[in-house]
Design a protein that fits this description.
single chain, 527 residues, alpha/beta, 2 domains, 5-stranded mixed sheet, 20 helices, globular
């Protein structure tokens, strides 16, 4: 038995909705490209970090699969190390994801519902973030949405061979983008097994080959991990640990859960967030009788979200973790508002009012994301706690202060650079300095904490006997462990960097003379 696929076309309205959707997405892309040129800010920490990965290409990295590094290498090549190239790429990927979401929703519920999905998608604050910041979630969401669309095309009999080919590509690139993509083939099997009308697909070797062979794309990072102590697995396992703060465990878990729910309402906007959870989780009880289009959202969205809620009851979760599951739910949420599916009791008028309120709130939050920072700049309080760009501020000032101290040394270009503290300081300094030099990191804590500890240190890179700059946060003395690997050292400068409203950080710069070695990773710093 094969599921039926009703004709959702409406000849009178299809072209109108498709034209409006494409024009709106195009207008959003144009806005994002212009905005990035008019309002440049620093990259967020992860962006600078992955940009640095892209300068040292490999087939595996400390915390993530390698595709984001490959993407940044390409962006750096075409953009010459510019921030605008990063922002433009994020804008393009974000709009492509919206376009694929429109095509998927149109195929499942008709072009009117596809139009609704574009409106709702744009009103969700997370879409503005994904269209602005080039993190691993940008390629992941594009690959996930493409995989959903290609799977639907295959099941509906639309060019099966072509659909499987592009499904295979989407899965392969998705696996290399973020570990979350690995659950897609599993959810596909669940989707097909849950009702008798789709179980016959599980007897098709071509589909099984597409799903299982897509995991072969993980061979490069697996080989890399085997050569590097399975470091990515060790890092990822920490995300699933339940950590106690030493207080009442029940209260801590309730706080984690409440924090997760609050963050998700901010990510989705309150109205659409509540509706999404009610529909995609509340309707799970109908999964064995629902149409295939509804089942898509329930399996690829509702079931994983239930798992996320249980995880949130035992540990803290990152706000972006459920992103692809929300994407899976978008067609069904749009279908609820457009009337393409009928469940629950709200009348058409009530749903129209709810949609209007949701769009107003969502677009207001998205507008604040884009224009809140410029407004606070005009008000004289840039970097205020309410400033959406607060986390992005200050690293250009850090680079300016360091560069001034650096250029006071006659042989500045011959000295290597080492930073202490968080990895963001290392990557942001490397990106913001005019010549974008290689910057090394040293931590006073033992062990591997970032990709920087996986790469060569200055001694291994041939700086034996050479001098180097050491950037130390605060008014701190030269670190003891590093004093053992230089013949001598001297303080050459200090400066302050303003990281926005009420946040000023102090830095000290030392010159280490004649490098003789490098502290072992398992050696704690001297007191």
């Amino acid at each position: 038995m094969v599921p039926s696929f009703p004709d959702m076309s409406d000849p009178l309205n299809d072209s109108k909705y498709q034209r409006n959707s494409v024009l709106l997405i195009g207008a959003v892309l144009l806005f994002r490209l212009i905005y990035a040129a008019i309002f440049p800010v620093n990259p967020v920490g992860d962006e600078a970090y992955y940009w640095d990965w892209g300068r040292q290409l490999d087939y595996g990295y400390y915390s993530k699969p390698p595709f984001v590094a490959w993407l940044y290498a390409f962006v750096d090549w075409i953009g010459g190390g510019s921030l605008y190239a990063i922002r433009a790429t994020a804008g393009v990927i974000g709009c492509l994801t919206l376009l694929v979401l429109f095509r998927l929703t149109t195929a499942q519920f008709g072009s009117k519902t596809g139009w609704y999905s574009v409106l709702i998608g744009l009103a969700i604050p997370a879409n503005s973030v994904l269209g602005y910041l080039l993190t691993i979630d940008a390629p992941l969401t594009l690959c996930w949405s493409m995989a959903l669309w290609m799977l639907w095309r295959y099941l509906s009999g639309t060019k099966p061979g072509q659909s499987l080919f592009f499904l295979f590509l989407a899965l392969g690139v998705g696996h290399l983008s973020k570990q979350m993509m690995m659950v897609f083939p599993v959810l596909t099997v669940v989707l097909l097994a849950v009702q008798s009308d789709t179980r016959s697909y599980l007897k098709r070797p071509a589909l099984w080959a597409t799903l299982l062979l897509s995991y072969l794309s993980l061979l490069p990072p697996l080989i890399w991990n085997a050569q590097n102590g399975w470091i990515t697995f060790k890092h990822t396992s920490h995300h699933f640990e339940s950590v106690s703060g030493g207080g009442n465990v029940i209260l801590e878990r309730l706080e984690d859960f409440a924090e997760f729910i609050g963050s998700q309402l901010g990510v989705l906007s309150p109205v659409f967030g509540v509706v999404l959870y009610i529909i995609c989780i509340g309707r799970l009880k109908t999964i064995r009788t629902a149409s295939l289009a509804v089942r898509f959202a329930l399996v690829f969205g509702g079931i994983p979200l239930v798992g996320m809620l249980f995880m949130a009851m035992r540990q803290g979760l990152q706000p972006n973790w459920p992103a692809v599951f929300y994407l899976s739910c978008m067609p069904l949420v749009a279908a609820f508002f457009s009337g393409a599916v009928e469940f629950a009791k709200p009348s058409a008028a009530t749903k129209a009012r709810l949609m209007k309120v949701g769009l107003i709130i969502g677009f207001a939050l998205s507008a604040f994301f884009y224009f809140g920072s410029p407004i606070m700049e005009l008000a004289g309080i840039p970097g205020h706690k309410a400033d959406p760009n607060r986390r992005l501020m200050g690293y250009d000032k850090l680079a300016e202060g360091f560069e001034k101290v650096r250029r006071a040394q006659a042989d500045a270009d011959e000295l290597f650079i080492v930073t202490l503290g968080h990895r963001d300081t290392t990557s942001q300094l490397a990106f913001a300095l005019p010549d974008q030099p290689r910057v090394y990191r040293w931590s006073n804590r033992p062990g591997i904490e970032s990709q920087y500890e996986m790469w060569n240190n200055p001694f291994e890179d041939g700086f034996d006997g050479k001098d180097g700059f050491i950037l130390v946060p605060g008014n701190n003395t030269f670190p003891g462990a590093l004093s053992d690997v230089f013949e001598s050292y001297e303080k050459v400068g200090e400066f302050e960097a303003v990281f926005g409203y009420d946040r000023t950080k102090f830095y000290t710069v030392y010159r280490g003379k004649a490098l003789t070695g490098w502290p072992a990773l398992n050696e704690p710093a001297h007191p």
